Amino acid sequence: MRRAVSLVTDSTSTFLSQTTYALIEAITEYTKAVYTLISLYRKYTSLLGKMNSQEEDEVWQVIIGARVEMTSKQQEYLRLETTWMTAVGLSEMAAEAAYHTGADQASVTARSHIQLVKSQVQEVRQLSQKAETKLAEAQTEELLQKTQEEGDERAEPEQEAYLRED
Asked: Predominant location of this chain (predicted)?
């Protein structure tokens, strides 16, 4: 029975390793897509007031394409995250079964592996959350710049009218 439980913990450990690798890769790709979008927003913000409407539309098409790409990467990593959580659950059950059958080494090894992959995934998640925060900041900066730009355009006709009255 211990041999069978050891085989189960080995199998679940392999499954967990593979799903962890896939999840980390997917989160990394998502994070790269977020940084691409941040870069585009910042470039757009720096060009506000310097582009004609056609150029602005073209830039927005690129931004929209990058946003679609980012959303696609996010959906992929969320799908893989569900599979990864299943793999964690299976590994935890295998470790528990190993413990109850007296295969202590298999149980300890499985639990150590679970803790390791959880910390690895947590590190990558933190990096993606940091990127999401920077994206929100870039979007806010763009909105503020756009609002200021529109405010300046409205103020100019008022100033001209004021000067004409003198």
From this structure: mitochondrion
Q: How far apart are CA 65 and CA 57, in angstroms?
A: 12
- For helices 2-47 and 104-165, angle between their N-to-C axes, nearest 10 degrees: 10
Instruction: Report the 3 state secondary structure along 84-113.
Output: HHHHHHHHHHHHHHHHHCCCHHHHHHHHHH
In Å, the largest CA–CA distance within the chain is: 99
Residue 123 vs residues 23, 34, 88, 104, 159: alpha-carbon distances, Å? 12, 17, 17, 29, 54
Q: Is 132 exposed, middle or buried (0-12, 13-18, 19+ CB in 10 A)?
A: middle
pLDDT on residue 166: 47
What are the C-alpha distances in Å from 122 to residues 66, 79, 117, 163? 25, 17, 8, 61
Q: What is the pLDDT of residues 5-53, one digit of tens each?
A: 889 999 999 999 999 999 999 999 999 999 999 999 999 988 888 888 8
Q: What is the pLDDT of residues 86-98, one digit of tens each?
A: 999 999 999 999 9
pLDDT > 90 fraction of the chain, expressed in percent and rounded: 74
